[in-house]
Amino acid sequence: MGPVWKLVSGKHQCDRCGREVERVPAVGRVVDFVFRPEEVYCWECYDYIKPLVDTVAPVSDDPYQPVTRPAIP
Ligand SMILES: [Zn+2]
What we know:
Strand content: 35-45%
Helix content: 10-25%
Bound molecules: zinc ion
Radius of gyration: 15 Å
Shape: extended
Number of helices: 2
Number of strands: 3
Largest sheet: 3 strands, antiparallel
Order of helices and strands: EEEHH
Strand order of the largest sheet: 1-2-3
Number of domains: 1
């Protein structure tokens, strides 16, 4: 499952501008049906970052990525 956005309550520090914000969007993953936020943003930064979410959370769930370089040269 890819990264998802969710509203998080409580006080958080925006990961982009450092502002302290409450009840803001966070991007993260659902692990065992529990949302684990990875990055939290204020609404201003959320608007800015939303179209770029793939570059914000580029972690792939596929553990079998093709090897592009041999481990031993
Ligand atoms: Zn911000």
